[in-house]
Amino acid sequence: MAVRISGIDIPRSKRGVIGLTYLYGIGKSLSKMILYSIGINENKKVENWSDDDISKIRKFISDNIKIEGELRSEIQFNIKKLMDIGCYIGTRHRKGLPLRGQKTKNNCRTRKGRKKTVANKKKVTK
């Protein structure tokens, strides 16, 4: 049976550090910190975790860390707040442009989307 933490199945064949990164909001360093503070070896596979270990992890995460839906909604609220107050980053969000000073002449297709071709002006014949 798969280990389930806050609605996400963690793969049983992975090491504990890597398995916890399947949760949105938990990276490798945070998962190391979680396992260290609980006292579980980070190289121990998820399938070898006892029920007690799993319940400790669930309790630690629910008490101390925002993950998944709660974190996503907080991030969306922060972005909406930036757009409402009209600061520079908020206007860049609204226009769909890169936020952190990148050049936009040649690159940034991820933020801008597909190319929009602009037709050339017709040449005047004499």
TrEMBL record:
GO molecular function, one term: rRNA binding
The UniProt record lists the keyword Ribonucleoprotein: yes
A Pfam match: Ribosomal_S13
Any one cellular-component term (Gene Ontology): small ribosomal subunit
Domain of life the protein comes from: Bacteria
Span list, region Disordered: 97-126
Xref: InterPro entries: Rbsml_uS13_C, Ribosomal_uS13, Ribosomal_uS13-like_H2TH, Ribosomal_uS13_bac-type
UniProt keyword annotations, A-Z: Ribonucleoprotein, Ribosomal protein, RNA-binding, rRNA-binding
One GO term of the biological process aspect: translation
Family per record: Belongs to the universal ribosomal protein uS13 family.
Official protein name in the record: Small ribosomal subunit protein uS13
Lineage per the UniProt record: Bacteria, Pseudomonadati, Bacteroidota, Flavobacteriia, Flavobacteriales
